[in-house]
Structure formats: C-alpha cells, structure tokens
Amino acid sequence: MFDDFFIRALVAGIGVAFVTGPLGCFVIWRRLSYFGDTLAHSALLGVTLAFTMEFNIALSVFIISSLIALTLIQLQKKTNLPGDALLGLLAHSSLAVGLVVIGFLTFIRFDIMGLLFGDILAVTVDDLLIIWIGGALILLILKLIWKPLFASTVNYELAEAEGLNPERAKAIFTILMAAIIAISIKMVGLLLITGMLIIPAAMARNISTSPQSMVIYSIIGGLLAVILGLFSSLEFNTSSGPSIISAALLLFILSLFRIKQSIKLKN
Amino acid sequence: MSRNNMSTNQNVLVKLNEAGFSLDNKWLVKGVSLQVEKGKIVTLIGPNGSGKSTTAKIALGIYKKIDGTVEKYTNKVGYVPQKISIDWTLPLRVNDFMVLTENLNKETIDEALSLTGVIHLKDKNLGDLSGGEFQRVLLARAISKKPELLVLDEPVQGVDYTGEIALYKLIKKITDELNCGILLISHDLHTVMSATDHVVCLNGHVCCSGSPMDVAKNNEYKALFGEQASEILSRYEHRHDHIHTDEGEIKKN
Known about the structure:
The complex is a heterodimer.
Chain A: H1 5-29, H2 33-52, H3 57-78, H4 83-104, H5 112-117, H6 125-154, H7 156-161, H8 166-188, H9 193-207, H10 211-236, H11 240-266
Helix pairs in contact in A: 1-6, 1-8, 1-9, 1-10, 2-3, 2-4, 2-8, 2-9, 3-4, 3-8, 6-8, 9-10, 9-11, 10-11
Chain B: H1 3-8, E1 12-23, E2 26-37, E3 41-45, H2 52-60, E4 67-72, E5 77-80, H3 94-98, H4 106-115, H5 131-144, E6 149-153, H6 161-178, E7 181-185, H7 189-193, E8 198-202, E9 206-210, H8 212-217, H9 219-225, H10 227-235, E10 242-244, E11 250-252
Parallel strand pairs in B: 3-7, 3-8, 5-6, 6-7
Antiparallel strand pairs in B: 1-2, 1-4, 8-9, 10-11
Helix pairs in contact in B: 4-5, 9-10
C-alpha cells in the first residue's frame, strides 16, 4: 500500500503532525519559535554532511542540530550578547556555511527547493519508519518529562523548589526539538518547520481553556493541515511544505472567529 | 539538648549552616544559620532587601552556588513564592495549577481549595483571578500536597484583613495537623508572632534570633524596627514590668 508516493507522503505527514502538535505547544509557551528556526536553519548543514559522507539524513540533521543547540547554550553562558542576537548568528551562519558546502559539492545534484520547502516525492519507506519510530520515541520521552517541563514553563522556581529538576527537563526538550526537525525536514522543508510547530499550536490556543485541550487541538489542527495541504499540493502541483503551512494558516484564521464568539458570550 | 545533637535530630527538615548567596559580587545575605523542624514555625523578619526571600530560596535549593551548606532532609516541599510571574497567555485553570508539581485526586484538590476559601474558582482561568484570590490559590496548592516542609514567602499579601487572620489561623492549624515544618516570611508582626516558635531577624545577616520574646528584647531588633514593633512582639509573651526611656534604656517601674 506504500507503493504510491502520495500515500507515503500522507502517512509521513500524519506521523509528523502527531509530534509537532504537543511540541509546538511548548514552543509557544516557552517562547522558543526563534530557537526552533535556528535549529531548522542549521539542518541544511546536516543534510550536506549526510550527502558528503553518505550518511542517513535524519541522523545527520539530528546530530548537527543538537550540536548547534549545545553551542547556543555555551555562547549564552560565555558572552554578553542577547539571546536573539545569538540565535540570529547561529541560524544564518549555519545556513550560509551549509550553502557554501553545497557549492563545493558539484558532483552531487541537489534539489535545493526540496530541501528548503519539502518534497512529497522524496519520501521513502525508510523515511516512514524513521518518522513513526522516531516520532513515537519523541512522544514517549515528552510524556515522561511532561510534569517537570510544564511546571517549569509555568514557574521555574516553583518547579525547582518542589524537586522537579527543571534543568534536566529543559536539556531533554532541546534534544527533542532537534529530533523533530530531523524527522520532519523532508516533509515540510527546513524553512517552514517552525511554522508547522507554531501555527497549529497558535490555532489551538485560540480555542482551548486548558493545557491538555490545547495539545489535543494542536494535534488535530496539524493533522487537518497535513491532509488538506497534501491534497492541494497534489491537485495544484505546489511544494508540500508551503501547501501544508498555508492550510494551517487557514485553520488559524478560522479559529479567530471562535475567539470573537467566546468574547461575545462573556459579555 | 546540646547543639551537636540538634543536627542529627530526626525532626530537622532543613538546616542552613553559615549559608550565604552573592550576585555580581554583592552579598544578598551572608552567614545564615537556622533550622526548621517538624511541627515548628520559624519566621524570618527584616526590612526590605534584608535577604528574607533569598534565605528561603537557599533553603529550597533554588540557589545552588551558595556559601556554606544546606542540609535538606525532605523532598516533600510546598512553596508559596513572594513574586510569581506566570505567563497569562498559557491556558491554565485553577484546577490545572493545583496539579502543577504533583498529581492529586479530586477530593484532595477540593479540600485544599475549600480550606483557603476559593473552591468556587476551581474552573476559572488563573489570569482572571484577583491578587488576593490568586494568593489563596497559591496557598491551597502548597498545602494540598501535604508537604513536610512549607515555605511561605508573604503568603497573605493582598488578602483582605479578615481573610488574613483566617489564613494565618489556617497555617497554624495545618502545622499541627500535618506536623509539618514552616519557614514563614512576613511583615505582619502582630498576627504572626503569636504563633511563631522561632524568629530570625535578618538584615543582610542574622541580626538576632530566638523566641519572639527574646528577639523583642534584643537591642539590634529594636534599632531595626523601632520600639513600637518590639512591644507588639513581646505583648504576646509577657506583661511589661518596665518602661523604656527615649534612649532605649530600660527603666524599672
């Protein structure tokens, strides 16, 4: 049944949406959208390294993104530069270095557009395995660290005082961010991954009253965006990433009407 | 009981030995030694910026790079911070906040919220509460876990006057029922001192400590808070058998 490229893309996208839903909520709650962007930009370097060394792309992206995250933490400790400047520095320099390396690799034909914006034709059965097994692992780990991570998101000192070890949860979450970027790069493309994390979660925020419901709506929103986006990508022959993100934006706009309604109800 | 026995005392929940904390080469507090035991209330008093909250955070293990040592003998801790900055964009109801650090069943949550008088707010968004209501929720959350050690940093700020007295009574009752130790920070000398077992008066260092009566009689305390405060503190313990001259000298009646 996975012979058809479209079915493969659909199964891959659904797998990605299950994971970006809950992670995206934390990205919004912890204000990490630019951090996500930085990791995604560095993914290009990971892809080029994978090609030069004939290495698995997802694994290579995961390693490079994790290294960039560690570098960021070190730079934050050792310099007086503000966080957003450091993020910009790492994002653009890793993207630039990635592109320069591609320039040298003339013997390999690169589909740059596919890398940046996703390519449903490129999803293989191996990718499906990586997405679903990797995704299940990410969700399992997120469930295990949910309590300390969420508590420290609400209030760091409360979590620390009551023995939840927020530093460890934060470190693990950083690794999970690198992992979701690694597994979703083929589907959404590295320029739009953060959109897949943020937009369904932002839509969910508009219509939810508790953290749990926000996570559930975020997953549902992501699934709808993937399905709508992929079908229109097939129909109109557009790149998969932008189609999915546009569908997510549409859902976000619809959710704004719900806010208006609930404000009306309150008054 | 000698001092050495105290440190191995089974009832000790947390013990600070000459603890201090500095930020950017400036000492926030230095050389604090105190201990909180089961069923006892230890109150920190002192002017603004005297290091009360810092001392509480040292005891809680929030500050790690400290001078001196902290010995903590319990992991069941409830904390009511002085300032809490919660991102109100988070969809968080009172009920979600109650289970923030520990899973509790419905009865436990309801009981704690009823005790502090905010059960009717259970499904309200945390961001919609008033300052006093939020303070009651914070206290409910801290006691609902049935902690062995409660650290309360100005727990009744923003609560109306009658509520304040009721909450202090509740705090006292909780200490007795749970047999937990309380480290309390308060400005309100009137209400607090009547229930406190041990007072530590801070001013960047331990200025004096002891029973409320001892502290009230201490000259450094008088210098810090003034004569009137001293009388408030001692009123619960003894009748004055002397009056004070303007210079602070004691004159027998």
